[in-house]
Amino acid sequence: MALDGTQTRLFTAGLDGEIKVWDFNGRCLHRMNAGLGRAVEISQVLVLKKSILVMGWESLLVGQFTAHNKDLGSIVMAVSPCGKYLVTADREGTLKTWDIQRYCLEPHDGITTEPPKLLRSFRPHLDRVTHLEMCLHGDRLLVLSASSDCSVALSYLPGEMIGLFGQVDIDTDTQTHTQVVSVHCTTHNAQPM
């Protein structure tokens, strides 16, 4: 299941390969078959701004790229509600924001291995990022990241830091620990949530 960017339509998928678009009155607005008329197991539906990405066991891979150094192991990732941004994070605390709005939409022979455009790379954490979440606040997109270093960072997309909460700062000269709570406020006309 997935919600569209406006969160007014629900997309569901079945084992028969059929995708249904619903309104919140229980009315099916549209039906399409991702299996082109045959049954396929759909594991995930991702709603992008102008397209729907359907993944399953029999899906066709159209693109893959290395988002972070391979030696860093697994990464976590999240896609913005509007489908424009992919944010990836690694075990060193680095977040990267990619523009995926048009990624793999052009016809291509084989698998695209070129990465989408990297918009921003920044390191708000000292250790592995364990969770990413994105949401809309007024007219701005936010990314919330949590880390094994016991911190939570809040940033505007594509990567403007708002605040970092809970991280312990270690002074290497005196070996003292200081609890860091920093918030950087910007003035804008965003509506409260």
Could you characterize the architecture of this molecule?
- This is WD repeat-containing protein 49.
- WD repeats lie at residues 1-25, 65-101.
- Keywords: Repeat, WD repeat.
- It comes from Liparis tanakae (Tanaka's snailfish).
- With 193 residues, this protein is an all-beta fold.
- The protein folds into 2 domains: 2-56, no CATH class; 70-183, 7 Propeller (Methylamine Dehydrogenase, Chain H).
- 0% of the residues lie in helices and 47% in strands.
- It is built from no helices and 15 strands.
- The chain has strands spanning 2-3, 10-13, 18-22, 28-33, 42-47, 52-56, 76-79, 85-89, 95-99, 117-122, 129-137, 140-147, 152-156, 160-171, 176-183.
- A 5-stranded antiparallel sheet has the order 11-12-13-14-15, with no helix packed on it.
- Strand 11 (129-137) and strand 12 form a beta hairpin.
- It is globular.
- Mean pLDDT is 75; it is low at 174-193.
Explain the layout of strands and helices:
Layout: E1 2-3, E2 10-13, E3 18-22, E4 28-33, E5 42-47, E6 52-56, E7 76-79, E8 85-89, E9 95-99, E10 117-122, E11 129-137, E12 140-147, E13 152-156, E14 160-171, E15 176-183
Antiparallel strand pairs: 1-2, 2-3, 3-4, 5-6, 7-8, 8-9, 9-10, 11-12, 12-13, 13-14, 14-15
Q: Which properties best describe this structure?
A:
WD repeat; Methylamine Dehydrogenase, Chain H; 2 domains; five-stranded antiparallel beta sheet; mainly beta; single chain
Short description:
By secondary structure, the chain is an all-beta fold. The protein is built from no helices and 15 strands.
> Which percent bin holds the helix content?
under 10%
Spans with pLDDT under 50 lasting ≥5 residues?
A: 174-193
Per CATH, the superfamily of the largest domain is: YVTN repeat-like/Quinoprotein amine dehydrogenase
CATH topology of the largest domain: Methylamine Dehydrogenase, Chain H
Mean pLDDT: 75
Could you tell me the radius of gyration in angstroms? 20 Å
Secondary-structure content class: mainly beta
Morphology call: globular
Q: What is the beta-strand fraction?
A: over 45%
Question: Given this structure, which CATH class of the largest domain is correct?
Answer: Mainly Beta
- Helix segment count? 0
Sketch the topology as an H/E string, one letter per element. Answer: EEEEEEEEEEEEEEE
State the end-to-end CA separation.
Answer: 24 Å
What is the number of E strands?
A: 15
Q: Quick one: biggest sheet?
A: 5 strands, antiparallel
CATH architecture of the largest domain: 7 Propeller
